[in-house]
């Protein structure tokens, strides 16, 4: 499927594909978004673990935050809706750095950017494309693989997205967190998040948060809960059941042929040659 034929469910804004869940009027009006200094932005390329981090932040005792839906989800009324929250807002988005509303940068709001190995991200996004009616149905993994390589998917090229944020990795208001590190050493990642947000947590609280935000717990709760669409943290669906698939590191191996791995690795080496983060992302 070419990017042209994807346009029945997607549309382009400033050269990047968005789903029809993000109206053009809203995207156009984002620069008038009025950020507050204590806002926290939860940023990611789709399928990098956004819901996981969101649940972690919501589970921190005494965080006194309100998790909103994605800033780019909805229509023109979105910016008014965001004004109604009186508590500290945690606002998710999949926007690349350049599309982030200017006001957020000026006010140096805290930003957590989560990154996941691109091969696992691609496989996860492939399934999302198949399961999510708001995204085009792509018949085969090999067809999706080609689109992903060319960046002809929602939110554009994984490489451009990550590199746009990496440029700002040393900004003091930006924290970069890796999905794989969260899986390997949850308490360490959690400490990074709470230190960044200036909230104290003790060891027993860390254990409680780890249990509450484990993949199995979140997957089970998503089935049980009467889902509140205002709590979607991804601008691509309001159905939480679509989010929890496998939740593992390295599932790509079940999809990539050896040729696809070679092609992908070559592109990765080329695109990420100046990246300081690349070494955390290779398998
Ligand atoms: P998979 O499709 O590989 O299973 P996002 O929240 O950005 O949409 O990312 C979704 C991906 O994160 C899915 O990956 C999902 O299963 C995984 N995920 C969600 N919650 C998780 C958790 N608590 N632990 C580990 N992975 C989780």
From TrEMBL:
Q: Which GO terms describe its molecular function?
A: sulfotransferase activity
Q: What is its EC number?
A: 2.8.2.-
Which keywords, in A-to-Z order, does the entry hold?
Cytoplasm, Transferase
- What's one Pfam family here? Sulfotransfer_1
UniProt-listed InterPro entries: P-loop_NTPase, Sulfotransferase_dom
Compartments it resides in: Cytoplasm
What family is reported?
A: Belongs to the sulfotransferase 1 family.
For this protein, the record's PANTHER family field holds: SULFOTRANSFERASE SULT
- The protein in question is named Sulfotransferase
């Amino acid at each position: 499927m070419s990017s042209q034929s994807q346009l029945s469910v997607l549309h382009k804004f400033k050269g990047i594909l968005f789903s029809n869940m993000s109206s053009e009027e809203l995207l156009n009006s984002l620069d008038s978004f009025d950020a507050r200094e204590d806002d926290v932005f939860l940023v990611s390329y789709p399928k990098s673990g956004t819901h996981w981090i969101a649940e972690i932040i919501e589970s921190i005792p005494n965080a006194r935050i309100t998790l909103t839906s994605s800033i780019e989800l909805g229509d023109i009324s979105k910016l008014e809706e965001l004004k109604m929250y009186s508590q500290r807002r945690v606002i998710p988005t999949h926007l690349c750095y350049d599309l982030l509303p200017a006001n957020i940068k000026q006010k140096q709001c805290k930003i957590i950017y989560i990154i996941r190995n691109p091969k696992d991200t691609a496989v996860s996004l492939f399934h999302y494309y198949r399961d999510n009616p708001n995204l085009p149905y792509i018949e085969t993994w090999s067809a999706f693989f080609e689109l992903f390589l060319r960046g002809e998917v929602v939110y554009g090229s994984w490489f451009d997205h990550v590199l746009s944020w990496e440029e700002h990795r040393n900004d003091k208001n930006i924290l970069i967190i890796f999905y794989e590190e969260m899986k390997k050493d949850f308490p360490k990642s959690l400490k990074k998040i709470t230190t960044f947000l200036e909230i104290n947590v003790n060891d027993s609280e860390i254990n409680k948060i780890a249990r509450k935000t484990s993949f199995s717990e979140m997957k089970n709760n998503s089935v049980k809960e009467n889902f509140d669409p205002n709590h979607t943290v991804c601008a691509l669906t309001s159905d939480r059941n679509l989010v929890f698939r496998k939740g593992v590191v390295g599932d790509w191996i079940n999809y990539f042929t050896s040729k696809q791995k070679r092609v992908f690795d070559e592109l990765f080496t080329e695109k990420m040659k100046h990246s300081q983060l690349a070494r955390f992302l290779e398998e």
